[in-house]
């Protein structure tokens, strides 16, 4: 459902989501399928799967930080990430829900 059109536009967006996540230090705190400092990206994807506006919401969180959604540890604002990179990362995270869809009901987003 996530439209990748905006994320695909700039030439720099040739990198995959994973490459970008590594380059922007996301993987210092996150892993794809296991909890590290922050929640696993697949688990985040499950929570937001199918929810309206999830990509914009997560893009905002990536740049602005998050606290209290997943536990006591806050995520600092990632100011090194541009708006279009944040959209690309958000789309990539959301795409991971399909990869690990085991039929478990996604927790309610709100
Ligand atoms: C310093 C450690 C740290 C770094 C670096 C970090 N995160 Fe996080 N991230 C966290 C923590 C901790 C949480 C859970 C915050 C909470 O409970 O609200 C989180 C939550 C998230 C969420 C879910 C937000 C929500 O509201 O549900 C997303 C998406 C996310 N991170 C993506 C990223 C991306 C993409 C990057 C790289 C640009 C990144 N993170 C870098 C620690 C980090």
Can you give a write-up of this model?
The chain has 110 residues and is mainly alpha-helical. The protein has one domain (1-7, 31-67, 74-110): Cytochrome c-like domain (Cytochrome Bc1 Complex, Chain D, domain 2), CATH 1.10.760.10. It has five helices and no strands. The chain is globular, with a radius of gyration of 13 Å. The mean pLDDT is 85. Residues 21, 24-26, 28-30, 37-39, 44, 58, 61-62, 66-71, 73-76, 78, 81, 89, 93 line the site of heme C. Residues 12-97 form the Cytochrome c domain. Keywords: Electron transport, Heme, Iron, Metal-binding, Transport. This is C-type cytochrome. Heme c binds at residues 26, 30, 75. InterPro entries: Cyt_c-like_dom, Cyt_c-like_dom_sf, Cyt_c_ID.
User: What is the β-strand count?
Assistant: 0
Radius of gyration: 13 Å
Count of distinct structural domains: 1
CATH topology: Cytochrome Bc1 Complex, Chain D, domain 2
Uncertain regions spanning at least 5 consecutive residues: none
Number of helices: 5
Distinct compounds present: heme C
| SSE series | HHHHH
Descriptive terms for the model:
0% strand; mainly alpha; Cytochrome Bc1 Complex, Chain D, domain 2; 110 residues; binds heme C
């Amino acid at each position: 459902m996530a439209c990748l059109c905006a994320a695909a536009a700039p030439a720099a967006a040739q990198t995959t989501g994973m490459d970008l996540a590594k380059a922007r230090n996301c993987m210092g705190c996150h892993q794809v399928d296991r909890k590290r400092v922050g929640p696993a990206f697949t688990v985040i994807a499950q929570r937001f799967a199918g929810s309206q506006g999830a990509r914009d919401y997560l893009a905002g969180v990536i740049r602005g930080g998050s606290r209290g959604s997943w536990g006591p540890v806050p995520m600092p604002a990632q100011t090194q990430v541009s708006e279009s990179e944040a959209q690309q990362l958000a789309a990539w995270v959301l795409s991971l829900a399909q990869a690990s869809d085991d039929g478990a009901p996604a927790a309610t987003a709100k």
